[in-house]
Amino acid sequence: MFGLGFGEILLIAVVALVVLGPERLPKVARSAGLWVGRIQNFINNVKTELSQQAGVAEFRQARDSIEAAARSFEHDINVNVHSIRGEVDALKRQLYEDEQQTETNSTPALAELSQDYYQPVRGAPLLHRVSLRRQALQRRRDMRPKHSITPKLRVRRH
């Protein structure tokens, strides 16, 4: 720890034996050992605390970089969804106009009926699809028996 060799430690022990005497030397050695142990324990605690703080800082940096990547990915997806919705709306308008032209050319009575049917609803989702998972759950629910069958246990008497 301090770069002391065996000879230097032996010299210190002999001087301590002469100065303190044989009666007080064991008590002083015991208290010195306790103090050295406490100091080592304190140093180890400080080292572990510093290493934990360094690890926390690394985790914070990793978390921040992941959050930044997620934000940029979300922005890219929103931009793509917005452009796709614009294209879908344009296609719907074009199909609606084509249907209007074909219906006005064929029958005027059907055109009046279909106007209410094909009007786009504001605020409604573009495509309404039930998820496959929800459909599977509904099928599973429909296949269940209406009443649960409980087994009846018979008791044998001898």
Describe the protein:
This protein is mostly helical. The protein has helices spanning 6-20, 25-106, 108-118, 132-143. Helices cover 76% and strands 0% of the residues. The longest helix has 82 residues, at 25-106.
Binned strand content: under 5%
Mean pLDDT: 80
> Could you state the order of secondary-structure elements as H and E?
HHHH
* Largest sheet geometry: none
Helix content: over 70%
Structural class: mainly alpha
Shape: elongated
Can you count the beta strands?
A: 0
Rg, Å, rounded:
42 Å
Question: Number of helical runs?
Answer: 4
Query: Kindly, what is the distance between the CA atoms of the first and last residues, rounded to a whole number of angstroms?
Result: 83 Å
Q: Low-confidence spans: pLDDT under 50, at least 5 residues?
A: none
